[in-house]
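Incident log, support desk, overnight shift.

02:14 A customer reports that sequence design results differ from what the structure should imply. Their input is reproduced verbatim below. On-call engineer (initials T.W.) acknowledged and began investigating.
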C-alpha cells in the first residue's frame, strides 16, 4: 500500500463516528503556560510568574477587574439607618499594594450612590489592593465615616467583594489582655481558668444601663460588640465556661466611645485571677 493510501486510511479511522481514539482539536490541546498562544489566550510566555507582562495568558496592561462593594449603615441597636443628610456618596478607595501590603501607587477612587447600599467600582488594573469604603459628600470634601482597610486581591483579574458596616451612633472598644495570679502576679494561661474561658468587657455609663461584650480569652486581644456613643466606666474580667467571674481588673474610668464607627483602645489589661 502506498504512503498516500495509508494516510487516507488512518485519517478515515481517526474521524469516524463509531468510537475509537479521535484526534484532539486545537481547543483541547490549548494550555496556558505552554509557550503557545492558543485560541482564547491573549499571550503565553511559558511561565506562571505574575506581573511580568503576561499573567494567566492575559496581557498585564489589559488585565482588569472590579470591586463589588456593599455597605450598611446601622445603629448600635441593629436597625438600618439612612445615609446622613449631605453625605450622598459611597467612595470605594483602592490603593495598590505589594505582596507585603505596602502601598505602591496612588489610591483609585470610584464614586457610588450611598443610598444604593451596593455597587461596583470602576475597572481596576489586576493587582492587589488595600480597599475601604468612605461615606462622603459628592465632592469628597467632607467624610462621615471610613471603614477599616481590607486586602482585596484582583491579581487573577476576577471581581472581588468588599463589605463594610457603619455604626451611626456608636463605636467599639479594642483591647489586649494578660492573666496573672492574684497571689503573686506571675503570668498564667487562659487554660488555668478554663479551656473555654471568656473575657468580659462591661461598660457602665452610670445610668444603670450597663452592657457587656464577651471575647475568647485564648485570642489574647479583640474588639467588642458596639456601644452607644458616650462616656463609660469599663470593667474587664475573666469568666469560666459557665460564666462565673474568676477575677477582674481595676475599673477604667472615663472611657469614651465616639460616633460614627469609633474605636477606643483600652490598651493592655492585666487581669488578676482569684484562687491562683
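02:41 Re-run completed on a clean worker. Output:
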Amino acid at each position: 500500500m502506498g504512503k498516500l493510501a495509508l494516510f487516507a486510511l488512518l485519517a478515515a479511522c481517526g474521524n469516524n463516528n463509531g468510537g475509537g481514539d479521535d484526534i484532539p482539536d486545537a481547543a483541547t490541546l490549548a494550555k496556558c503556560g505552554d509557550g503557545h498562544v492558543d485560541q482564547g489566550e491573549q499571550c503565553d510566555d511559558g511561565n506562571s510568574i505574575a506581573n511580568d507582562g503576561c499573567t494567566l495568558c492575559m496581557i498585564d496592561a489589559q488585565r482588569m477587574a472590579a470591586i463589588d462593594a456593599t455597605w450598611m449603615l446601622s445603629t448600635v441597636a441593629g436597625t438600618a439607618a439612612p445615609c446622613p443628610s449631605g453625605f450622598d456618596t459611597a467612595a470605594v478607595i483602592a490603593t495598590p499594594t505589594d505582596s507585603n501590603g505596602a502601598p505602591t501607587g496612588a489610591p483609585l477612587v470610584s464614586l457610588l450612590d450611598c443610598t444604593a447600599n451596593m455597587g461596583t467600582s470602576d475597572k481596576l488594573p489586576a493587582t492587589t489592593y488595600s480597599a475601604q469604603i468612605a461615606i462622603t459628600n459628592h465632592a469628597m470634601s467632607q467624610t462621615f465615616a471610613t471603614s477599616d482597610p481590607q486586602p482585596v486581591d484582583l491579581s487573577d483579574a476576577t471581581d472581588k467583594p468588599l463589605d463594610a458596616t457603619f455604626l451611626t451612633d456608636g463605636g467599639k472598644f479594642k483591647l489586649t489582655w494578660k492573666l496573672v495570679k492574684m497571689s503573686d502576679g506571675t503570668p498564667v494561661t487562659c487554660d488555668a481558668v478554663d479551656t473555654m474561658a471568656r473575657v468580659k468587657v462591661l461598660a457602665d455609663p452610670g445610668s444603670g444601663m450597663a452592657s457587656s461584650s464577651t471575647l475568647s480569652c485564648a485570642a489574647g486581644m479583640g474588639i467588642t460588640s458596639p456601644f452607644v456613643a458616650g462616656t463609660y466606666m469599663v470593667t474587664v474580667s475573666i469568666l469560666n465556661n459557665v460564666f462565673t467571674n474568676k477575677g477582674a481588673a481595676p475599673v477604667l474610668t472615663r472611657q469614651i466611645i465616639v460616633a460614627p464607627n469609633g474605636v477606643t483602645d483600652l490598651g493592655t489589661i492585666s487581669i488578676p485571677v482569684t484562687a491562683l
